[in-house]
Write a structure and sequence with these properties.
Blueprint (H helix, E strand, L loop, with lengths): L21 H5 L13 H17 L10 E3 L9 H18 L3 H6 L3 E2 L9 E4 L1 H7 L10 E7 L2 E11 L5 H7 L8 E8 L24 H6 L3 E13 L6 H4 L2 H6 L1
Antiparallel strand pairs: 1-6, 2-3, 3-4, 4-5, 5-7, 6-7
Length: 254
């Protein structure tokens, strides 16, 4: 399939698919679409959804009906060591891409650099595709940068996993006694002419909207998606301890 225009992968959406990986494509759907069925028109709409997801996560931590988190499990022998190995690899990755120009030259793309953000996701769509089939801590889906004057300062990484994954699948990648993954759910896309309402005060639509069921969404003329994007988790490997490295509060505030 032809390479699609670059979109936000925050959340884990991908910009291209391969014909020899049908099962993987089912786990890498953009909002409401199998990758094998996405058109250029759909891609533009999905970019809008990605932008809205970004804004919905800024400023406050509010799970509500639009956010699904993995349950924090009791610690098992070896969990801390396994998670620390991921953090150690991620720290080495950050050293490699400390200069954001190196990241750009390596194929990472900035999601909407023209829009002021608390964190900017530099996404590698080949790594996103790879994450659908296997977990490679050396290949985070996104690098997380904060604005620093005219440039950017690297503060963390984001890993993704297919939305078809169970919590047990995610636990195999990073122990769920240490990290909590999240995904965006119950998304009602606003009908034509009402998209601006998704980001306004007391919105009906979107990831901060009052609408959280298909019935309500249909009645309002919207388009309902039970899940958008893939599983995601942020990691801040330069922090001093596991609680801060895998902080749920920070990844939602950012």
């Amino acid at each position: 399939m032809k390479h699609l225009p670059a979109l936000f992968c925050l959340l884990g959406a991908l910009c291209f698919a391969r014909q020899n990986s049908t099962q993987d494509m089912k786990g890498m759907n953009m909002p409401g679409h199998d990758m094998s069925k996405v058109s250029a028109h759909d891609s533009a709409e999905d970019s809008d959804a990605g932008m809205h997801a970004m804004h919905s996560m800024e400023g406050r931590m509010d799970m509500g009906p639009h956010m699904k988190m993995t349950a924090l499990r009791p610690a098992q022998p070896g969990d801390a060591e396994k998670a620390q190995k991921v953090a150690d690899v991620a720290r080495a990755v950050m050293e490699k891409y400390k200069d954001y120009q190196v990241a750009l030259n390596a194929g990472f793309k900035i999601f909407h650099p023209e829009v002021p953000q608390k964190q900017y996701h530099f996404t590698n769509y080949e790594y996103a595709f790879e994450a659908a089939g296997q977990f490679n801590p050396e290949h985070p889906t996104s690098l997380l940068y904060e604005k620093n004057g005219d440039g950017y300062r690297l503060v963390g990484v984001m890993y993704t996993a297919p939305k078809r994954f169970t919590e047990e699948d995610l636990n195999q990648r990073i122990p769920l006694s240490i990290a909590q993954w999240h995904e965006h759910v119950n998304f009602c896309k606003a009908p034509e002419g009402h998209r601006g309402e998704m980001l306004g005060a007391n919105p009906k639509f979107g990831l901060r909207g009052s609408i959280a069921t298909k019935e309500e969404c249909d009645a309002a003329g919207g388009e309902f998606h039970p899940i958008i994007f893939n599983w995601m988790v942020h990691l801040y490997p330069l922090e001093k301890d596991a609680a801060h490295m895998w902080s749920v509060e920070r990844q939602h505030a950012d």
